[in-house]
Design a protein that fits this description.
two-stranded antiparallel ribbon, globular, single chain, 28% helix, alpha/beta
Length: 204
Amino acid sequence: MADISARRNLRSRIRRARRALPAQVQLLHARAVARRVLISRLPLFARRIALYAPGDGELDSSPLIDALIARHRMVALPVVLPDRLLGFYRYTPATKLIANRYGLAEPDSRTGVFIDRRTLDAAVVPLVAFDAKGHRLGMGGGYFDTTFADPGDRPLLIGLAHALQQVDDVPAEPWDVPLDAVVTETALVICSARGARVLQSAGS
């Protein structure tokens, strides 16, 4: 079992650091990350991709969402469900968004188009901290870990982050679901053989 206080302290430190980034720097990072994803093999591999609506200084996924939609990829956003699970609903610029219990934007499930998570090719997820082994520290709710707990139908999992969120070692719990890769404004960090096979461009 991981040291709970170590996870708590790491989460607090990194959240402060990313919230302190100026808005212009946040935007530059988001655009750089989108470019790195788009020159990888992901747009060739994945037709149905889940992303997220950012909050709390998380890497803004909007530039990547817009670019994927422009490339005719099906984009889904998560909706918070009971039992620490996420459902996914298609997102387009016309999708009605509402604020969930955490103040994050999500599609209105009453009018949205449900996407079975088992049909997703990839899921792009937020994080607080990560290491080169693919260990991910989230906000503590456990939604992504619970939703993607079954490795048998798990999509490719890609984290988006500012480079300052990478640490030497994330104190991992047994139930933490590892990432296949993380993309920051400075690097594509490959964390698994599947991540390397799918994401690395021909020149990498």
